[in-house]
């Protein structure tokens, strides 16, 4: 009887040591509507990381499907599981940054919670970083042995390859798969780079490597991209603009914010929408030019508001009554922006009659006004 009791106490002490000991590795899982996948991922991590002191931090953007509560229930039984529930802010990059900063482990890894990333690769990544020869280890679909598998549609695979080529050409990122979202790095190196990173967008690993400006020692390991098991992909066609914004921001050494670049690109689409609407109103409906111009202006502003709400401010996306109120304030802000545009252009042209210079200065002034005031009023932080 005594021996059994001692045996039980030994097992308890082993369990306590495992639970209370410091984690060497933190796995960050950014989530949105992944309630069915999180329990599976935690179980897979437990098997893959046997013998490793690890923890997982689920950073959930207040999923309506109860992902945060599911994770909290698991955490009640397994102290290695932690939950950060974000309210009023969204975005994969921002979630990854918060999760990695919340860790105190020597190494941090980021992977998707949708089961498309192969968790069995984590021990190999950890081994590479433990060697002290590398700062970051990236799971690549494009080195020998890697494959996109069935996880990407042909269109998304084409888009991913194009984005990879752009990153290598313009940012000089020497990676076979700079768009990978599955990686592990030393936390001390991440902390050094964190102030330069954008909390917007989806390509946090590309941001990290580009911000390192060639100083990070990189190791790539092959992996096969698996098919999603539950839920739906959060990526859409608007992510392309988001990615281009990050690309341009890095080209200019982060002197221009990604959000402003997104706002400006949306504004560029607004010019096209305006001209198309104007042509239709004049040619098909025969409206007087002044009336057609006014209607086309509101059509373009509505388009800009919709796209900005979907893309530029996806982390502060307006819904319901807030959406209606936001649209009204956006109309007012842009109306004053037009006045600022014309006023500045007229002032410059009077003193220096170079039409393109005056026009460009007015357009920039209007864009900056619209961005600053929209940021403060329409999509202000809650």
From TrEMBL:
Q: Which CDD domains match?
A: DPM1_like (cd06442)
Domain GtrA/DPMS transmembrane intervals: 263-379
GO molecular function, a single term = dolichyl-phosphate beta-D-mannosyltransferase activity
GO biological process, alphabetically ordered: glycolipid biosynthetic process; polysaccharide biosynthetic process
InterPro entries cross-referenced by the UniProt entry: DPM1-like, Glyco_trans_2-like, GtrA_DPMS_TM, Nucleotide-diphossugar_trans
- Which keywords, in A-to-Z order, does the entry hold? Glycosyltransferase, Membrane, Transferase, Transmembrane, Transmembrane helix
Tell me a GO cellular component. membrane
- Domain Glycosyltransferase 2-like per the UniProt entry, residue ranges: 26-189
| Membrane topology according to the record | Multi-pass membrane protein
Compartments, as annotated in UniProt: Membrane
Q: Where are the transmembrane segments?
A: 260-281, 287-307, 328-348, 354-373
Q: What is its main location?
A: membrane
Q: Which family does it belong to?
A: Belongs to the glycosyltransferase 2 family.
Its recorded name reads Dolichol-phosphate mannosyltransferase
């Amino acid at each position: 009887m005594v021996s059994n009791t001692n045996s039980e106490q030994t097992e308890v002490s082993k369990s306590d040591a495992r639970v209370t000991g410091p984690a060497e590795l933190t796995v960050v899982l950014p989530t949105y509507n992944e309630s069915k996948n999180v329990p599976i991922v935690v179980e897979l991590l437990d098997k893959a990381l046997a013998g490793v002191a690890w923890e997982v931090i689920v950073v959930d953007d207040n999923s309506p499907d109860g992902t945060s509560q599911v994770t909290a229930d698991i955490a009640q039984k397994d102290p290695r599981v932690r939950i950060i529930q974000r309210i009023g802010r969204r975005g994969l990059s921002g979630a990854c940054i918060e999760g990695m900063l919340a860790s105190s482990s020597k190494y941090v890894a980021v992977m998707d919670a949708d089961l498309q990333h192969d968790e069995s690769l984590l021990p190999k990544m950890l081994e590479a970083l433990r060697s002290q020869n590398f700062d970051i280890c990236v799971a690549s679909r494009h080195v020998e042995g890697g494959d996109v598998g069935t996880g990407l549609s042909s269109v998304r695979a084409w888009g991913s390859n194009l984005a990879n080529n752009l990153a290598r050409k313009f940012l000089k990122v020497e990676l076979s798969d700079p768009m990978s979202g599955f990686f592990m790095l030393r936390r001390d190196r991440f902390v050094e780079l964190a102030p330069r990173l954008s909390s917007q967008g989806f390509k946090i690993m590309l941001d990290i490597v580009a911000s390192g400006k060639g100083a990070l020692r990189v190791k790539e390991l092959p992996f096969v991209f698996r098919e999603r098991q539950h839920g739906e992909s959060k990526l859409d066609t608007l992510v392309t603009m988001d990615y281009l914004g990050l690309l341009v921001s890095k080209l200019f050494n982060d002197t221009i914010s990604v959000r402003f670049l997104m706002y400006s690109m949306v504004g560029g689409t607004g010019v096209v929408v305006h001209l198309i609407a104007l042509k239709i109103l004049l040619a098909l409906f025969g409206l007087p030019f002044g009336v057609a111009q006014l209607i086309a202006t509101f059509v373009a502003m509505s388009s800009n508001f919709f796209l900005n709400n979907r893309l530029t401010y996806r982390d502060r996306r307006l819904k319901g009554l807030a959406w209606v109120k936001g649209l009204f304030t956006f109309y007012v802000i842009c109306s004053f922006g037009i006045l600022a545009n014309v006023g500045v252009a007229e002032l410059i042209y009077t003193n220096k009659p170079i039409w393109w210079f005056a026009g460009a200065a007015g357009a920039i002034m209007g864009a900056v006004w619209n961005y600053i005031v929209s940021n403060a009023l329409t999509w202000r932080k809650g």
